[in-house]
Design goal:
By secondary structure, the chain is mainly alpha-helical. It is built from 2 helices and no strands. The mean pLDDT is 88.
């Protein structure tokens, strides 16, 4: 029974570490400006230029998620 708890701890730790790694990487590197709007790039699907696509204002979704994760981490710590 103890092995199941150890396995869950490892999986949870790996997931939490991956999220923290993304936040740190996003702090130093983001593919685009999070506030830059591009009217010709509205609602595009994922591509090499925009890995998670764009929103209704033409903003890069990945960049906005990386910037938003900073605020979420700060709120979680406080």
């Amino acid at each position: 029974m103890k092995k199941k708890h150890d396995k869950n701890l490892i999986i949870g730790s790996v997931l939490a570490g991956a999220v923290l790694l993304l936040i740190v990487v996003g702090y130093f590197w983001t593919p685009c400006d999070p506030e830059a709007m591009n009217a010709s790039a509205k609602m595009q699907p994922p591509s090499w230029a925009h890995l998670l696509g764009t929103d209704e204002a033409g903003r890069d979704v990945l960049t906005r998620m990386l910037y938003g994760s900073r605020v979420s981490l700060l709120v979680g710590i406080v």
